[in-house]
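Input/output pair, single chain:
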Amino acid sequence: MSQNFFITGGAGFIGSNYASRLISRGEKVTIYDNLCRAGAPLNLKWLRDTYGESSFTLVVGDLRDAALLTASARQADVIVHLAGQVAVTTSVQHPRDDFENNALGTFNVVEAARLSGRQPVLIYASTNKVYGGMEEVKVVEKDTRYAYANLSLGASEAQPLDFHSPYGCSKGTGDQYVRDYFRIYGLRSVVMRQSCIFGTRQFGIEDQGWVAWFVIAAVTGKPIAIYGDGKQVRDLLYIDDLLDAYDAALERIDTAAGQVYNLGGGPANSISIWQEFGPLLSRLLGHGIPVTWHDWRPGDQRIFVADTRKAYRELGWQPKVSVEEGLKRLVSWVKANRSIF
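Output:
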C-alpha cells in the first residue's frame, strides 16, 4: 500500500534523488520547495521527463510560511525534512536569514506534523556540525591528512553537542526540536546527523557540496580554491547509501523513533579534501588539476569522521559504495551533463 511522502527541499540534490526512488516504487510524493537553488528546475524537469508530468505534486513554498506548510503537509504519512540554508559561510554573512530558514523553518515543520493529527514519521536531515570543532578531541597531523588520536572508529552520537557558527546553531536548534517532539508529543521523529553526502544530481558550489563542486570545476575548467592545507578529512557518503538509511529507519520506525544517528562513510570512506582527493580525481579524469591556496576559513573542522555503529546495530545499515566508485559515478554524470554547468 502506497504512502503519502512530503519532502521539503524535494527539488534539491538529496530530495530529488529520494523522490525518484519513491516514485519508482509507487509512493505518492509531494515536493515542497521554494526553488531558490539553481539546480532545482533542472531536477524537477528530470523527474517529470523520467516519470511523467503527474508523477508528483509540487508546492512552491517557503519554510517560513507556516500556514502554507501546515496545509500542504496535512495528509502526509512521512515527512522528510531536507530544506534549509545549507552553507556555513552564508550563515556567517546572513545569520538572521539562516536562523529563519533552519531554526524557525524546522519548528514550522514539526508543528505541521503535530497539527496534522496523523502522527506522521518525520526524518530530519541534521548535520555533523552540531558537534562543533570538537576542540577537546586530540588530532594528529600526518603526511596527507589529519587523524583522531584516539577515536579510531570516528565520532559517535555520544559526542557532546557544541554548536559552532550560526549554521551550527540553527541546524542544532532544529535537531533538538525534532528530538523533543518525540518526547513531548510522541512524534515519530528521527534525526540523521549527516556527514559529507555526494552523488549525481548534486549542483555543488564552492560553499556547499564541495565534492561535486571540485568535480564540476575540474571537468569544466573552472578555478578551484583550497582553503587551509588540504589535509582536512571528511567521511564521504554516497547518495544511494544515505537513502538506504532513510528507508531502513522507516522500516524499523519502532526502533528508530526518537533516535539520533550519525550517517557518514565512516573511517573506510574518509579522505582528505585535497591532498588525497586531488590525486584520486586527477587519476579518474586523466589530467592534472590546478588549484589556488588560501587561508583557513572560520569554523573549518580539521577532521570529522562519523562512527556509524549505532545505525548498523539498530537499523542494519552500513555504507556500501566506496569513495572511488561513487566518484566514478559522479564524474560520469557531470561529463554527460556538461552543457548544464
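The radius of gyration is 19 Å. The chain has twelve helices and 15 strands.
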